[in-house]
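Q: My labmate handed me this sequence with no annotations at all. I'd like to see what the chain might look like in three dimensions before we decide whether it's worth expressing. Could you predict it?
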Amino acid sequence: GNMLEPAIIESLKSVYAALENEVTLVLSESAHEKQDELLEMVQEIASTSPKISVKHSSVKTAIPELTLEYQ
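A: Here is what I predict for the chain of 71 residues:
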């Protein structure tokens, strides 16, 4: 199922349409029970814009951690 409501995804698309630079969402490795949910949400966010991508970090963290990289 979707983590984000369709209306939220649509509004994100319009917001992210204004992005001029590429953004990478970097997700750390974590054994946390919510890791998969975070990954799913991050992938949904990335699907709203061709300028947003997801990358897996080799850094292992106790809790899911998300960082941004700007091109």
